[in-house]
Amino acid sequence: MDFRNSDTITGPRIEDILPTTATAAVKVVIVGGFGVGKTTMVGSVSEIRPLTTEETMTQAGVGVDDNFGVESKTATTVAMDFGRISISEELILYLFGTPGQERFWFLWNGLFEGALGAVVLIDTRRLEVSFDVIGRLEERGVPFVVAINTFPDAPKHPVEALRSALDLPDEVPMIDCDARLRGSSRDVLMTLMRYLHSLAVPLA
């Protein structure tokens, strides 16, 4: 069979190849409850074609998955999302988005292995879905920042009120974002990088 005129992909696309200037890579995990925008964030900020494991939601999830507030959602991540972003010519971030439903949380163990830090995406319409997520990060000792994703009908609350509701220490950064926008998602990742740097540099 002649494949010379085939559309079959035989290797990585040029834009997917790791830059030759890259000297360091770190792993970051994007977590949050079901439907808060994790897949959207990975897709918006990744400089390569993101890997997603979204599957159509079926009747099997009825009574098992809590989709209150996101009833119109028709697909869900069942394993992970993966993307990549260059912070500088030398530093590369590998992004791993976790599944949101609790029945898939057993996959978190592998996804968090070797992670430098995490972004917790929250939806102020369903703040309660973030409690267990944050608790798991604190149990693991994983540094994280909280990103308040923008939804058209989401209520606005003062940052300090949200911090109190989530029982967050004062030093944990919180930032507003729109996960659909590359620049906004990148700002979240840069906030995490600055926070991780502050933890690594001892106070004078």
TrEMBL record:
Q: Give the matching Pfam families.
A: ATP_bind_1
Keywords, ordered alphabetically: GTP-binding, Hydrolase, Nucleotide-binding
InterPro entries referenced in this protein's UniProt entry, alphabetically: Gliding_Motility_GTPase, Gpn, P-loop_NTPase
The answer on whether this UniProt entry bears the keyword GTP-binding reads yes
* Keyword ATP-binding found: no
- Family in the record: Belongs to the GPN-loop GTPase family.
What PANTHER family does the record tag this protein with? Answer: ATP/GTP-BINDING PROTEIN-RELATED, GLIDING MOTILITY PROTEIN MGLA
Q: What is this protein called?
A: ATP/GTP-binding protein
Q: Which organism is it from?
A: Streptomyces yanii
